[in-house]
Design brief:
Oligomer: single chain
Bound molecules: tryptophanyl-5'AMP
Family: Belongs to the class-I aminoacyl-tRNA synthetase family.
CATH class of the largest domain: Alpha Beta
Pfam family, one: tRNA-synt_1b
CATH superfamily of the largest domain: HUPs
Number of helices: 12
Helix content: 40-55%
Structural class: mainly alpha
Protein name: Tryptophan--tRNA ligase
Organism: Kibdelosporangium phytohabitans
Strand order of the largest sheet: 1-2-3
Low-confidence stretches: none
EC number: 6.1.1.2
Length: 321
């Protein structure tokens, strides 16, 4: 069984990425598992190349600092030739309607003056990421589940049209923290590329910064610490974060907390504690560029090796190559 997942360096890793996804990647698994920095996905909207390179490096360090074994990581663009070749085959397996109805595409393209074609086709590249090495399970937060469904549909369609080439993958989302919300605007999800960072906790934020962000978290006028996500999204979000850090259900962590002030302090403490070792390990890695380069180079070789056979089989079945 192979698990695979990726994180896009379109910004700095935030708490939702960590609790909803990255933490799970570090926890379980086998040495067949693959976790990668999806740097090619960060090109779908305007970006700065130097900053992308720096953010890719930081994201790789965060994956390792979160405890993912060095043998399991790589950077997507290091196997760009295989992935883009497979993407073309999959684009010719996918319909326009299928990508046009992706929620993330609709959200990100709404109101934009120009829309990069890559923003539309990005889920097909993501399907290539998943299908190339033959992943069975894809651990992701809720917002990526629809993209994994598309990968699943494309795998089935290719297999039945041209011949068996792909493992049909499935998304795995965590029970809690599958959709962490922005602390300052709990109606939206926490996102690394949010325009306003007041409500976004970054994995590498210093403890006092984390505390400040929780102190300013938006709550409501009920003055009740109860887990009611629809009525009290801000409070429920903090209870979910606390639940993810303590391992107890969100309903239970509310017991004994009698004010919003205590809820904020308790949650901030738990997050600071949860991220402490991750931050320390990540900073050590960032201070050792040679070691990061070495890990990246071996990861690239391993990933290329993994994809080689399936790509050959796919092109043969598709009548090219
Ligand atoms: P990305 O970089 O947006 O997010 C990385 C992971 O974090 C999860 N996540 C969240 N979980 C809970 N609450 C949140 N607020 C939150 N925000 C993000 C995401 O669901 C994701 O699991 N396209 C992907 C990267 C990717 C990928 C892949 C994933 C590229 N190829 C192949 C799986 C398989 C992305 O941009 O994730």
């Amino acid at each position: 069984m192979t698990r695979l997942s990726g994180a896009t360096p379109s910004g700095r890793a935030q708490l939702g990425n960590y609790l909803g996804a990255i933490r799970q990647w570090a926890r379980e698994g086998t040495d067949d598992d693959l976790y990668f920095v999806s740097d090619m996905h960060a090109m779908t909207t305007a970006y700065n190349p130097q900053r992308l390179r720096a953010l890719s490096r930081e994201m790789l360090a965060v994956l390792l600092g979160s405890g993912i074994k060095p043998e399991r990581v790589f950077v997507q663009s290091d196997i760009a030739s295989q992935l883009t070749a497979l993407t073309w085959v999959l684009e010719c397996t996918c319909t326009f309607g299928e990508v046009a109805r992706m929620i993330q595409f609709k959200e990100k393209s709404a109101g934009a003056k120009t829309v990069r074609l890559g923003l539309l086709t990005y889920p097909v590249l993501m399907a290539a990421d998943i299908l190339l090495p033959g992943a069975d399970e894809v651990p992701v937060g809720e917002d990526q589940a629809q993209h994994v469904e598309l990968a699943r549909a494309l795998a089935r369609r290719f297999n039945s049209t041209y011949g068996e080439a792909f493992v049909v993958p499935k998304a795995v989302t965590p029970k809690v923290a599958a959709r962490i919300r922005d602390l300052a605007a709990p109606e939206r999800k926490m996102a690394k590329s949010a325009r306003d960072e007041a409500g976004v906790v970054f994995v590498l934020d210093a403890p006092d910064m984390i505390r400040r962000k929780f102190r300013r978290a938006v709550t409501d006028g009920f003055e009740r610490v109860e887990y009611r996500p629809d009525e009290q999204p801000g409070v429920a979000n903090m209870l979910e974060i606390l639940s993810a850090c303590t391992g107890q259900p969100p309903q239970d962590v509310a017991d004994g907390i009698d004010s919003y002030r205590v809820l904020k302090e308790t949650t901030a403490d738990a997050v600071i504690e949860e991220l402490r070792a991750v931050r320390n390990r990540t900073e050590d890695l960032l201070a050792d560029p040679a070691e990061l380069d070495r890990i990246r180079a071996t990861g690239a070789e391993r990933a290329a090796e993994r994809g080689h056979h399936r790509l050959a089989a796919v092109t043969r079945l598709a009548g090219i190559g």
